[in-house]
Amino acid sequence: MASARGSLPLQSLNNGQINSRSNAFNVQTPIKTGPLKPPGPAATANQIAQQQDQKKKKKKEKLSSLCKTPPSIVRTRTGIGYHRGLFLGEGGFARCFQMKDESGKLFAAKTVAKASIKSEKTKTKLLSEIKIHKSMVHPNIVRFIDCFEDDVNVYILLEMCPNQSLMELLKTRKALTEPEVRFIMVQIIGAVKYLHSRRVIHRDLKLGNIFFDPDMNLKIGDFGLASVLPSKGSRKYTICGTPNYIAPEVLGGKAVGHSFEVDVWAIGIMMYALLFGKPPFQSKDVQVIYEKIKKNDYIFNPTKDVSYQAKVLIKDILATNPLERPSLDEILEYSWFRNGSFPSSFTVESLTQTPRNVMDISKEESAKNLAAAKAKAGFNEWHRNPVQILKSDLESERPKALLPTSLSPSNVKQKYEEVSPVIASRETRPKTKIEQVSKIINNHPILLEKLNHNITSTLENMQTIQEYIRTGNSVKQFIDIDHERPVLVSKWVDYSNKHGFSYQLSTNDIGVLFNNGSTVLKISDEESLWHIIIDNSYGWTAHRYLAHDIPTRLKKEIEVVDFFSKYMKANLCEVSEHSGKNVNDDVFLRRYTREDHCIMFELSNGSFQFNFKDHHKLCLSSNGLVITHLSPHRTIETYPLAQVLEKGDFPGASDPMFAVKWEYMIASLRNKLEMQ
After folding, report:
1. How far is the C-alpha of 457 from the C-alpha of 356, rounded, in Å?
2. Torsion angle of C-alpha atoms 375, 381, 386, 387, degrees rounded to 10
3. Is 278 annotated as contributing to ligand binding?
């Protein structure tokens, strides 16, 4: 979300409210600051008065004031129109407005004035924020939708979180119960663990940047200060953040440096604030806050009924030495989490009052609820691809415009003919025609999220390896990996002007991707088939049927599959000499794209196959670390991608145009993301 008050309840605002600003915990501290100067020695009365005058002057000149109210309809370069709605709030750098698309769906638009982007450094910072946020796919992180611009503003379109932020919740409730805070902490820690596994430090975690979505799930927003650590041991040195939440090592500046532990510190600050009603180092004077942080000068208010176990955890998290703080996984092993009451959800009722019976949940039920909350927040997922901010990501492809096409999904020309999965005959198909199932997929958020997450992960690994080789770093870690022969599309027939797209896999399974988005896949070595349909919760749902229990409603689909099976067997040759079953999981075609130079297949196991017109075929594994080459002579070879990129070609059968095709594959995947 915007670095602003966040998503407030949807209600009309008067003119006075539009330009007003609420202060967290009723103190005059800035919402965001960065870079900051380290606190100096005690100031004289005149110096304090001068500082206060400067504060007032800076407040009048805050960059968010340069944001002009968007027009009633904001249009992207591709013609999509968004209707401006209510003003939601503002921070030091941006204002946030409701935006409604033509279907009536609401979004939040973080609006940054172009007039505030006066230097290349500021522009790079904004583009970095967009790049980082765009790559985030997690149930507890605000979903990035789009970014675009007009002559005055840059708009970052985000999912709408209409049920306030934790800051508004605390202002209403004054303090929360320990079971509620446990639930909140699990969701926050799950999202932060995801960020850290991708080498991203948020650096501005605070109650005002964490929002409730329509289902009362918490979402972390505002990546304006987020940064990527290029390696595990590297550090950042900019003094930035929100005063009440800044870790002591951040105040050390270049002399100390900081890393992931600053987010752990902020988690401890939020936990304290939610339980005690205000942050531990609260003061009306920012310099006093800094001094108290450096000295670790805080107390537990004895008038608040907070458990000893909670205080132990807070004390450990707020260790001055970052190396002494518990890890995110270790935090959840504390007895405060394991032995306390834990609710199954956070309800709308909790926004205004203490929920009933929240303290009376049994130990057994609490343990189940904790396990479920951890699973939902992604604690069981181990491997994540690191976010890469490459120079090419931050260089504009349109010199007079602010946003490069590599970061703005809507600001691209339709270079590729999207046919997922419907396509008419090539002679008659208009280049810009959007077909029935294309609309189904492009309007399906869960399905698109799964597809786009896979593309993003693959692209990041491909570009990481390329960057390692370009800079002369060792790629041994990318070569010493296990790999196996992939599942390939060995035959295909495009008959989507009537039925759909038929294909045979190297496993000899036969499938048809029908025009309604469903797939029927007949398994070669057993009398069974899969019926795969688009699902509102999971993207796809697969139903397996044995030969004797196939429902009659699938009779026509089975006839189509059988027809194409016979046709391909009689008229088409295998793509290689290495067919046959080679994996345990059944694979199907998710979607495909036809373009002048090749056809691209996206398979359900996450791999991408490119069939080029010169009869060379390249297949990327689901993580982008392995590549398979099928030559025009139908020989097949599989290597670690790093090995091929180091040599510039395949060690076996050469492809003289590999370098060109490599760039083409990267562009194809990137544009697939940008066109959603």
Report:
1. 43
2. -30
3. no
Diameter of the chain measured on Cα atoms: 93
What whole-number distance in Å separates Cα of residue 390 and Cα of residue 296? 38
- In the chain (676 residues long), the average pLDDT of successive 10-residue segments reads 36 30 32 45 51 52 68 82 87 85 91 87 89 93 92 91 93 95 97 94 96 94 92 84 95 88 98 97 95 96 94 97 94 94 92 90 94 90 68 47 52 30 29 35 52 79 88 86 84 84 91 90 83 72 83 89 83 54 66 85 91 91 89 89 91 87 88 70
Q: What structural domains does the chain harbor?
A: 166-376 (1.10.510.10), 439-516+553-674 (3.30.1120.30)
How many CB atoms are located within 10 Å of the residue 123 CB? Answer: 17
Q: Which amino acid is at 509?
A: D
The single-letter DSSP state of residue 202 is: -
* Amino acid identity, position 474: S
Q: Percentage helix, strand, coil, to 5, in the chain?
A: 35, 20, 45
Q: Report d(CA 579, CA 585) in Å as an integer.
A: 16
Catalytic residue ranges:
204
Tokens of 604: 């359900």
Q: What is the CA radius of gyration of the chain?
A: 27
The answer to pTM > 0.85 is no
